[in-house]
Inverse folding.
């Protein structure tokens, strides 16, 4: 399945791309549960090797409720990206409303031990009108 990355953020030659899809088969609309899957591609166009250390997500539902999710790495990994390389992963997000949004940042460590923040682009979570 070829995915179209709909949202992109570039921080100091490090690119974060996001493709998001609503999953009706994982949602339980009658129970007030909507579910999205998102595919992230991180591209290292810097001239040095970097390692993804932490993630910080801000997830907002249609009622304005904000959940902050922080932790080490992504889906259990702290990938090392050499120059010109990329890392892909897929994760999911449940909400109690049919719309919302996600945004955030990753903390990366360079080979010299210094750290920097790479933005994750803002992206909407929207269930089709027919799904709710």
């Amino acid at each position: 399945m070829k995915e179209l990355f709909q949202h992109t953020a570039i921080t100091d030659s490090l690119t974060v791309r996001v493709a998001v899809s609503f999953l009706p088969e994982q949602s339980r609309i009658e129970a007030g549960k909507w579910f999205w899957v998102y595919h992230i591609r991180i591209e290292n166009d810097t001239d040095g090797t970097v390692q993804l250390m932490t993630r910080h997500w801000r997830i907002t539902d249609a009622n304005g409720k904000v959940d902050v999710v922080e932790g080490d790495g992504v889906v259990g990994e702290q990938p090392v990206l050499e120059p010109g390389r990329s890392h892909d992963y897929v994760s999911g997000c449940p909400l109690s409303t049919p719309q919302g949004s996600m945004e955030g940042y990753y903390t990366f460590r360079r080979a010299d031990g210094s750290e920097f923040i790479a933005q994750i682009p803002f992206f909407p979570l929207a269930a089709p009108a027919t799904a709710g």
Q: What stands out?
A: The domain at 7-131 is CATH 2.60.40.1470 (Immunoglobulin-like). The two ends are 26 Å apart (CA to CA). The mean pLDDT is 94. The first strand starts at residue 7 and ends at 11.
